[in-house]
């Protein structure tokens, strides 16, 4: 259709009326007005002329005399529309009633034919003359939503026409923009390009229906804080349904300090009645702006044509100020607001991008990994003692340095989502609610020395490179664009040094790890203490020079989607941010409540906040490589094990007096790891309990008490086990060996009776042990022999070939039992075998398990033969409140499954062999300090000596070493009778890279000696 916008009713003058004549005419033509005292009062109108009819001085009717050019079919259509809407009981009262039975003609003063209609008068105030509030806006949204819903089922041929005020059809406006100049023209051009993007190209996706098309402030009647009437159906056309909401908003947002609230109030209720879809949301804001464009363009044209008609420019000024205000708010931001209001994900593909970021292996932003350094939290919230003055003043620096000193750190972290008062000036007033400010920090600040180099954490392209040189702004700013699949996201680096302008260019592609700048000084970085403002951005919102680093608190939901927590990339553990306890208090409380004979490792104790896989994180957000915790066997905080625990805990937890499946499932899996002969399990809770029970079983089975143990062994902390542990009873505080305990010499080829240099040293130990056993048997009956296959507390001493085999047969010859303590070494740690005894080609009578069995959950077990178990079943019930409960069994099973599924035994073998190989290289280089490295899989030891003298174990150096390594972020411990053996027994998820890290630091340590 050839569309000529400026024609018809807009070109023909409104009717010219003689009021007296009109009154007479009315009385003649409308029987219900006959013989009444009539008065009329003209109303504002654009192209028709309208009156209120008063009967006996009371407002009664609205008289509408149409423009002489108005066509009767359009007016009849309006009557059909009104009657249709009034057929809905919930709408009836809002729509004026038609009082004319027929549309009649009236001749105006110029003898032009005009059509006359009479409608009921709806009592109330015009919305445009009312101070708006939540209730009014809610009821307005609700009414419009109801109208949109009702109109879905209505169609009328006469509604299908082009109409100048239709914001979805403003192609004509493009050439009209040229009548404007300066900033106004720029605003209109931008609005028009938004129209092309968000409306024109989207039109075929929108739902169409008949619309009111002019729910402006003077067509809406308010009574007692509620909308009570929707007037004037003269503009009604067939158009995108969402037009009505857009048009309504274009008026409701005028002269409004709280745009956000009005959007929320109206759209929420509209959406409840008429669910807006995503395409409609995309168009809504642009339609609203397009309607404002029509207003200002029409006003300018009509003002020239009808200078006396005030109504024509009634909204012009307000429309301009709203257009100017909206121009400052990125349209995408407004779309996000509407998406949030309507319950859609705020940013499409947000989750895809976040998942990608979450999984990506980012490079370091600095030369080092931020995780490997102590960090201090620097609070810049309004209540922070740090901020007593301006952020650049020297006392702030002093206060920061004091914190750094306390935390032994040189890096400060300024928080994301922190409410700050430092952002002063009009730039920070919210456009969406002028009573609010943008004061919530959207990045993370990393306070660090000026001049520190920065590197790209991921490939990217320079998209913003700008000196935003205003006080408290970013100063030199860099934004990198990162792409994957069809998505993009950005990282922002603010407060940099100007030096980057010499080296970088917009559009330059940057590789992960490439230099991207330096930390700026206070003179160039916007007057701040030197730091990096680091921010992630999912939508640049059209910015090409700068990007807000702070957002409104009331819009944080949206800001959070646009600029999610940069910790997604930095990955400092969450507990670092939430920790409120200071180090001294934590240590003091521990000492107050817990006995001092529970030792704390290291000269500088570690206050751990969380751990994951093979890493710990302490209160300073520093990462430590865990080479010690064999309990966290499949990795700290393993989610598979955790899930098994919580699922079972929510289902059933009881004791072994009931039948339940988890104990059966787990037992079968666990026993499948043992030689067939070992087929009965007693579940307990700790290694000590397991050994204690094993000893009791042996005593019952043999009716004997005497026991052989290895020298330096530790088997647990119960009364009975302290007596079986030379490691304890022979040490400080110990009360010496009991008569029934017999100690076999540790076959230690370094410092024992026979050493590597002695020929047949192994056989000599074996023979001696056999003699000791034989001699003892002559005196007394023996219950059992307790041993580990690798002597942990003995200093990671591997029992030599044939040792166990021969000793076992000697013990068994005397009907005593052989008990192997696998508490430290079991569950695949030794790599080649699942249990360390397997290397020795023996099958023990009893095996005890603990530590790694529950990955930190207290579960342990005694495994034995059917015969031994049935002898133990002598009438006395064995009951254990917790041992073998369903939750423990679910956990134990999950641990076994994780070992199998993740091939952790194989990893222990490969990584362990590599570790041993690398350690041997170090040992060869530093023979002066290392006599031997030994072990199996990930159960290793380094024997530290003095000056190449093997017989001089060097405890002092070993302690120095583990404290040095602790300071390098690597956790090790010492053990052995001389406490000179560095013990290595990390979670089995340990990697070759971890090995390299340990070895590199060990080398540095020895090099420095
Ligand atoms: C070899 C050995 N057996 C038994 C135990 C005792 O286990 P728990 O501490 O679980 O009682 C330990 C503990 O260190 C151990 O190393």
Characterize the structure shown.
With 1009 residues, this protein is α+β, with helices and mostly antiparallel strands. It is built from 29 helices and 40 strands. An eight-stranded mixed β-sheet has the order 11-12-14-21-18-17-16-19, covered by helices on one side. Strands 26-34-33-32-29-27-28 form a seven-stranded mixed β-sheet, with helices on both faces. A hairpin with a 5-residue loop joins strand 39 (973-975) and strand 40. Helix 5 (182-199) packs antiparallel against helix 8 (278-305) and helix 8 (278-305) packs across helix 9. The longest helix is centred in the first third of the chain and has 28 residues, at 278-305. It is elongated and about 140 Å long. It starts with 18 loop residues before the first helix and ends with a helix. 47% of the residues are buried. The structure holds pyridoxal-5'-phosphate (PLP). Pyridoxal-5'-phosphate (PLP) binds at residues 686-688, 691, 714-717, 788, 792, 821, 823-824, 850-851.
What is the element layout, followed by pairings?
Elements lengths: L18 H11 L8 E6 L5 E7 L2 E8 L6 H15 L17 E4 L5 E8 L4 E2 L7 H18 L21 H4 L5 H18 L8 E4 L8 E4 L2 E5 L6 E4 L2 H10 L6 H15 L4 H28 L10 H12 L3 H11 L8 H10 L16 E2 L16 H14 L4 E3 L23 E4 L2 E4 L5 E3 L4 E9 L6 E10 L2 E8 L4 H5 L5 E2 L4 E4 L12 E7 L12 E3 L3 H7 L4 H4 L3 H5 L4 H11 L14 E5 L2 E4 L4 E4 L12 H13 L9 H11 L6 E7 L2 H16 L3 E5 L8 H5 L2 H4 L11 E4 L16 H19 L2 E6 L2 E2 L5 E2 L4 H11 L3 E5 L24 E4 L10 E6 H7 L13 H16 L2 H22 L4 E7 L2 E8 L2 E5 L1 H13 L2 E2 L1 E3 L5 E4 L7 H17 L1
Parallel strand pairs: 11-12, 25-38, 27-28, 27-29, 29-32, 32-33
Antiparallel strand pairs: 1-2, 2-3, 3-5, 4-5, 6-8, 7-10, 8-9, 12-14, 13-22, 14-21, 15-20, 16-17, 16-19, 17-18, 18-21, 23-24, 24-25, 26-34, 30-31, 33-34, 35-36, 36-37, 36-40, 39-40
Helix pairs in contact: 3-7, 5-8, 5-9, 6-8, 8-9, 8-10, 18-26, 19-26, 20-25, 23-24, 27-29
The structure holds pyridoxal-5'-phosphate.
The site of pyridoxal-5'-phosphate (PLP) has 15 residues, from helix 20.
């Amino acid at each position: 259709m050839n569309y000529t916008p400026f024609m018809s009713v807009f070109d023909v003058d409104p009717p010219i009326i003689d009021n007296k004549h009109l009154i007479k005419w009315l009385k003649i033509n409308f029987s219900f007005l006959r013989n009444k005292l009539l008065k009329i009062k003209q109303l504002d109108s654009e192209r028709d002329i309208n009156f209120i009819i008063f009967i006996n001085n009371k407002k009664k009717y609205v008289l509408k005399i149409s423009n002489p050019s108005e066509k009767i079919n359009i007016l009849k259509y309006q009557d059909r529309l009104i009657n249709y809407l009034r057929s809905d009981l919930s709408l009836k009262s809002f729509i004026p009633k038609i009082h004319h039975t027929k549309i009649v003609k009236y001749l105006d003063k110029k003898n032009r034919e005009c059509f006359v209609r009479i409608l009921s008068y709806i009592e109330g105030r015009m919305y445009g003359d009312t101070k708006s509030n939540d209730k009014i806006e809610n009821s307005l949204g609700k009414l419009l939503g109801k109208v949109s819903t009702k109109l879905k089922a209505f169609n009328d041929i006469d509604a299908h026409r082009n109409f100048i005020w239709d914001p979805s059809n403003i192609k004509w406006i493009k050439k009209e923009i040229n009548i404007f100049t300066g900033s106004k023209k720029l605003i209109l051009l931008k609005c028009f390009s938004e129209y092309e993007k968000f409306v024109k190209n989207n039109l075929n996706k929108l739902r169409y229906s008949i619309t009111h098309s002019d729910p402006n402030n003077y067509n809406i009647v308010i009574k007692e804080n509620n909308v009570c009437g929707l007037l004037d159906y003269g503009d009604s056309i067939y158009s995108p349904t969402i037009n009505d909401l857009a048009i309504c908003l274009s008026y409701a947002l005028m002269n409004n300090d709280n745009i956000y609230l009005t959007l929320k109030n109206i759209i929420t209720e509209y959406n409840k009645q008429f669910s807006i879809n995503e395409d409609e949301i995309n168009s809504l804001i642009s339609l609203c702006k397009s309607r404002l464009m029509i207003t200002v363009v029409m006003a300018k044209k009509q003002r020239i044509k009808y200078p006396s008609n005030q109504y024509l420019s009634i909204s012009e000024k307000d429309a301009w100020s709203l257009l100017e205000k909206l121009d400052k708010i990125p349209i995408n931001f407004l779309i996000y607001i509407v998406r949030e209001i309507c319950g859609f994900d705020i940013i499409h593909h947000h989750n895809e991008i976040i998942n990608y970021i979450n999984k990506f292996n980012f490079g370091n932003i600095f030369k080092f990994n931020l995780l490997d350094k102590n960090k201090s939290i620097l609070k810049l919230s309004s209540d922070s003692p740090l901020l007593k003055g301006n952020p650049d003043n020297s006392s702030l620096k002093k206060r920061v340095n004091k914190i750094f000193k306390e935390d032994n750190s040189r890096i400060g972290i300024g928080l994301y989502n922190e409410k700050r008062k430092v952002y002063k000036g009009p730039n920070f007033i919210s456009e969406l609610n002028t009573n609010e400010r943008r004061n919530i920090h959207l990045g993370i600040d990393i306070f660090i020395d000026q001049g520190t180099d920065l590197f790209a954490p991921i490939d990217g392209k320079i998209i913003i490179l700008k000196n935003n040189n205003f006080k408290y702004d970013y100063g030199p700013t860099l934004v990198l664009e990162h792409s994957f699949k069809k998505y993009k996201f950005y990282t922002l680096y603010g407060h940099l040094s100007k030096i980057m302008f010499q080296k970088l260019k917009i559009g330059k592609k940057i590789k992960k790890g490439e230099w991207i700048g330096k930390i700026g000084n206070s003179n160039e970085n916007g007057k701040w203490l030197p730091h990096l403002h680091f921010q992630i951005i999912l939508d640049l919102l059209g910015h090409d020079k700068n990007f807000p680093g702070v957002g409104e608190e009331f819009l944080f939901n949206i800001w959070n989607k646009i600029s999610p927590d940069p910790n997604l990339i930095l990955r400092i553990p969450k507990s670092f941010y939430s920790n409120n306890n200071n180090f001294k208090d934590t240590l003091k409380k521990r000492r107050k409540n817990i006995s001092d004979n529970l030792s704390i490792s290291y000269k500088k104790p570690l206050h751990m906040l969380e751990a994951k896989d093979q890493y710990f994180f302490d209160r300073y957000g520093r990462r430590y490589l865990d080479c010690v915790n064999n309990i966290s066997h499949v990795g700290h905080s393993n989610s598979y094990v955790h899930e098994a625990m919580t699922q079972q805990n929510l289902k059933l937890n009881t004791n072994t007096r009931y039948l339940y499946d988890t104990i059966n499932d787990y037992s079968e899996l666990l026993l499948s790891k043992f030689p067939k002969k070992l087929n009965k399990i007693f579940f307990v809770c700790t290694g000590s309990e397991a050994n204690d029970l094993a000893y009791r079983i042996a005593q019952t089975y043999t009716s004997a008490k005497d026991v052989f143990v290895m020298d330096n062994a530790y088997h647990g902390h119960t009364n009975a086990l302290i007596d079986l542990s030379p490691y304890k009873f022979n040490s400080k505080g110990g009360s010496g060996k009991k008569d029934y305990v017999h100690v076999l010499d540790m076959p230690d080829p370094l410092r024992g009776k026979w050493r590597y240099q002695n020929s047949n040293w192994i056989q000599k130990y074996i023979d001696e042990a056999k003699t000791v056993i034989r001699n003892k048997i002559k005196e007394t009956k023996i219950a059992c022999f307790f041993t580990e296959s690798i002597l942990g507390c003995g200093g990671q001493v591997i029992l030599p070939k044939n040792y166990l085999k021969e000793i076992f047969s000697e013990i068994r010859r005397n009907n005593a039992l052989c008990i192997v303590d696998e508490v430290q070494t079991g569950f695949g740690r030794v790599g080649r075998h699942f249990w360390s005894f397997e290397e020795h080609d023996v099958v023990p009578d009893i095996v005890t398990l603990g530590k790694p069995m529950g990955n930190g959950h207290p579960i342990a077990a005694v495994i034995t033969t059917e015969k031994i178990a049935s002898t133990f079943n002598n009438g006395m019930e064995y009951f254990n409140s917790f041992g073998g409960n369903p939750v423990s069994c679910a956990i134990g099973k999950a641990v076994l499954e994780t070992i199998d599924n993740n091939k952790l035994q194989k990893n222990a073998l490969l990584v362990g062999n590599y570790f041993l190989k690398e350690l041997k290289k170090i040992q060869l280089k530093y023979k002066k300090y290392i006599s031997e490295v030994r072990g199996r899989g990930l159960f290793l030891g380094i024997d530290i000596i003095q000056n190449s003298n093997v017989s001089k174990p060097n405890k002092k150096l070993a302690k120095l070493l583990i404290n040095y390594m602790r300071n390098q972020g690597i956790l090790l411990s010492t053990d052995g009778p001389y406490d000179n053996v560095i013990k290595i027994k990390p979670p089995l998820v340990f990697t070759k890279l971890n090995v390299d890290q340990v070895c590199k630091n060990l080398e540095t340590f020895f090099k420095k000696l």
